[in-house]
Amino acid sequence: MSMENTIKSSDSDVLVQVKNLKMHFPITEGALIPQVVGHVKAVDGVSFDIRRGETLGLVGESGCGKTTTGRCILQLEKATSGNILYDSVNLGQLDRIGMMPLRQRIQVIFQDPFSSLNPRMKIGEIIAEPMHVHNIEADNRAREKRVLELLSVCGLNPKFADRYPHEMSGGQRQRVGIARALAVRPEFIICDEAVSALDVSIQAQVINLLEDLRDEFNLTYLFIAHDLSVVRHLCHRVAVMYLGKMVELADCDELYDNPIHPYTKALLSAVPIPDPTIEKGRKHQMVKGEIPSPINPPSGCVFHPRCISATDGCSKAIPEFREVKPGHWVACTEV
Amino acid sequence: MAKLLEVQNLQTQFFTSAGIVKAVDGITYDVDEGETVAVVGESGCGKSVSALSILRLIPDPPGRVVGGHIKFMDQDLATLSDEEMRKVRGNKIAMVFQEPMTSLNPVLTIGLQITETLQQHLGLSREDADERAFELLEKVGISDARRRLKQYPHHLSGGMRQRVMIALALSCNPKLIIADEPTTALDVTIQAQILELMKNLTRELGVALIVITHNLGVVARYADRVNVMYAGRIIESGTAEDIYHHPRHPYTLALLRSVPRMDLPRQAKLDPVQGQPPDLTKLDDGCAFRPRCNFATDKCKSSGPKLETVSDGHATACWHHDKLINALETA
Fold first, then answer.
1. Which of the 8 DSSP states describes residue A122?
2. How far apart are CA A283 and CA A202, in angstroms?
3. Is some CB atom of chain B closer than 8 A to the CB atom of A333?
4. Are A204 and B160 in contact (CB < 8 Å)?
5. Nearest CA to CA, how far is A271 from chain B (Å)?
6. pLDDT tens-digit profile of B279-303?
7. Does the beta carbon of B265 lie under 8 angstroms from any beta carbon of chain A?
8. ipTM exceeding 0.90?
9. Which of A17-26, A142-151, B95-104 bottoms out in mean pLDDT, i.e. has the lowest?
10. pLDDT tens digit string along A151-161?
11. Does residue B262 sit at the A interface (CB-CB below 8 Å)?
12. pLDDT tier at A5 (50, 70, 90 boundaries)?
């Protein structure tokens, strides 16, 4: 702990540090005496920092480990190895009680606005519950007042407090999820595909809301998403994951304008741009094949079987995640 | 080019306890042979229902096609018997659905599902059907096709299943494929593969394609012509260039302004359309977009605008479309 404290004093603008995080889920066989026959390497040695006040985008395709990384930071999964330091406190060493005050500071917004709200609770109760748990606004009337405040901050009519989730549309429910996260006055919010389930016009409303809240309450976001357009719009820095590994990390515009890793390039090229003239002139670099299984990932660089720049060496050596330009990190030996 | 499909004033309604839902409220469009037409809109705008109506797949009750004509290869589909309609479905018009898991039968092998179609519609023998199924899987880029034919849908990834769906759709050499959100459930690199495959195969075989999607990027990349739907109506139609560079309906404009761009540095906050889409049981005679529209006047309340041609092949349903000339540039 003492060493970590020194890091804090020199590096105080860093809020979250993820160091060599690994999350391997065991695969068991046998009903009576389960035996571990393998591991799903959902996250396999990921390191990054999140600075205070910034929005870090974490992108990648399904199964790349971006959600698991978020869940590990929230301590919803017990990491296999590696450390997560929040404001220099090692979260892995805390017990349930010790974690409580931090849970107030770290909140989460989930993807599915249908399954993340309890259908039997009224909206007002849903938003008040975290305040109850963390003993904020101990007085009932103050709590009610704050619920109404939060509803209007999130662009909802205060009369929704007496309604149930099924009476609301997807966009409105997502706003309730955001209001619930804000209820305990957090400083750090993990948005796990928070706008993915919404229609474009509603999605844009929620993106603007997240932006307004960030400015108003000085929030730090970890924005987990697969939609690269939304990430470019909202994030300061972006990290790209593939098969449990971090492949590239850079400032937002740098990553989109000068991608270095072949996977990032392919990913960006695959996203269609809403402009037919640009699309006609664009060269599409298709990435061949499908994402391999994280149970038995390829040796060396995990992307090498699909990579157009792969050489013989790529299947042997695991590329180091290194800084090739100031602030621009890449895990590829061929660049 | 000859008209392959003509949809005229199609109306589909659902009779529910909450009232009559006018899911599709008088849409008219056509598709030429070999052309790719996109139908764009947000959830509940009637884009999928319009496609199911063409194939007469609307569950009745609660839904019913209450008006309009659908002419396919100069034949009015409404006059066909159920038996005749079955021969059109899957044979002349094929469909690719969004969910490759739920649209394939989980207890039948891939091979059986393809050969069944071939035997039913084309009357092939078992051996010929097997051979053709193998060719089809090769064509849609599935490696090790012999082995795949013996596998079940759960052995395959989402992208592979969607390839199988495309193989199924192509199996009887259809004239038209209707793809309802064909790539929405897939990752972007797989989405790009599947869309490229569909584009190449439809061009190569001269099949017309109706792509139903909410993704404006997908439309820009693949569509020749675009129909934008809102609250059960087509509110603007034109070439992809017309729609993206010279939108003449406030909703189209709002949609374009709502999408963040991946190719440009962030310039400003998004400018989304406010409010929610309307309740389809409570539509009045006026323009359905009026409550969310910056251009709305009393005229929009009293009567709904009809699609009106503004230039060759470009039509919009807005009383105030003149105010939108160069709207994108002045933004």
1. -
2. 31
3. no
4. no
5. 6
6. 888 888 889 999 889 888 888 888 8
7. yes
8. no
9. B95-104
10. 988 988 888 99
11. yes
12. very low
B 173-232 → A contacts, CB under 8 A: 187-193, 195-196, 214-223
Q: What pLDDT digit, counting tens, does each position of B131-167 carry?
A: 999 999 988 888 888 889 999 998 888 888 888 988 8
Residue of B nearest to A236 (CA): B266
A272 neighbourhood in chain B, CB within 8 Å: 192, 195, 215, 217-218, 220-222
Residues 6 or more apart in contact with residue B92 via CB below 8 angstroms: B72, B73, B172, B174, B175, B176
**What pLDDT does A3 receive?**
40
Q: With beta carbons under 8 A apart, name residues in chain B contacting A202.
A: 42, 272, 276
Neighbours of B59 (CB within 10 A): 9
Report yes or no: A283 at the B interface, CB cutoff 8 Å.
Answer: no
CA distance B243 to A210: 29
**Cross-chain residue pair A273–B261, CB shorter than 8 Å:** yes
Residue B234 — φ and ψ, nearest 5°?
-85, 120
Q: What is the sign of the dihedral through the CA atoms of A161, A166, A167 and A171? A: positive
Query: Can you read off the two tokens belonging to residue B180?
Result: 């309802």
pLDDT tens for A29-38 read 888 888 888 8
Under DSSP, the state recorded for B89 is: B
> SS3 of A257, please?
helix
Contacts of A211 in chain B (CB under 8 A): 269
Place of tokens 């640009």: A278
Residue with tokens 């996260």: A181
**CB-CB neighbors (< 8 A) of B259 in chain A:** 200, 204, 229, 274
In order of start, what are the domains of chain A with their CATH numbers? 1-51+76-94+238-335 (3.40.50.300), 95-235 (3.40.50.300)
Distances (CA, A) of B51 to B2, B24, B65, B181, B209: 21, 10, 12, 11, 12
Does the N-terminal peptide bond of residue A259 adopt cis geometry, omega within 30 degrees of 0? no
Yes or no, beta carbons of A268 and B191 under 8 Å apart: no
Q: Which helix (H) or strand (E) holds B64?
A: strand B63-72
Q: Mutate one of A62, A66, A200 to test the B interface: name it (highest B CB count within 10 A).
A: A200
Per-residue model confidence (pLDDT) at position B283: 82
The reply to whether A277 touches chain B by the CB within 8 Å rule is: yes
Q: Taking chain A, what is the end-to-end CA distance rounded to the nearest angstrom? A: 37
Q: What percent of chain B has pLDDT over 90?
A: 36
Q: Position A135: which residue type?
A: N
User: Sheet holding A14-29: strands in order across?
Assistant: A35-51, A14-29, A81-86, A89-90
* Integer CA distances (angstroms), B212 to A283, A297, B48, B58, in order: 24, 36, 7, 16
CA B82, chain centre distance (Å): 23
